[in-house]
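Hey, quick one: can you model this chain's 3D structure?
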Amino acid sequence: MKKQAGEENFDLAVSLNNLAKLQISKGNYEDAEALYLQAIEIREKVLGAEHPDMAIFLNNLALLYKSQGKLSEAEPLYVRSIMIREKVLGPEHPDLAKALDNLARFYYVQGKYEEAEPLCRRALEIREKFLGPEHPDTATFLNNLALLYKSQGKFDEAEPLLTRALEISRKELGAKHPATTTYLSNLANLYDAKIKNAD
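Sure thing. Here's the predicted structure for all 199 residues.
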């Protein structure tokens, strides 16, 4: 049975997206960008501008731009990805939490902590509601928010979050798991920062 033109174009967009990822792994960022842009154009024609898959493609291109330092080009793609997910999937969908976290990290690395904080808090709330308070992914989001608070000098707000992330990780993943050791290290660094700040 012959595929419809829309299905063929959809498959082509997926292939282009995968080729873009391959080009990134080879360090061919310009080729990757062209492939992502072509995939986005096809996806938009076939599925429409507000399809959830559009959000994935937009996010991939945003990550590429971020890695290249093209921050002004990356930000609107992150924002559009969030808007699509929120509108189509709803305000409490786990994919929305991931998109919020991506934008929060984007702001965090630029030192835009005030912009990152509400996104990080909301991502944690969604993850916690969807996965539960003891899930390892919840611990990851607790850690992310704690590091954001630490960067702002909000040590007392960061400490219980890191402590909780560490407890979850020890219980669910074990004391020797890389996530557990990371949270332990982050907590130690927080205590060190608190001591230095008190001096």
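One thing worth noting: Residues 1-89 form a domain with the Serine Threonine Protein Phosphatase 5, Tetratricopeptide repeat fold (CATH 1.25.40.10).
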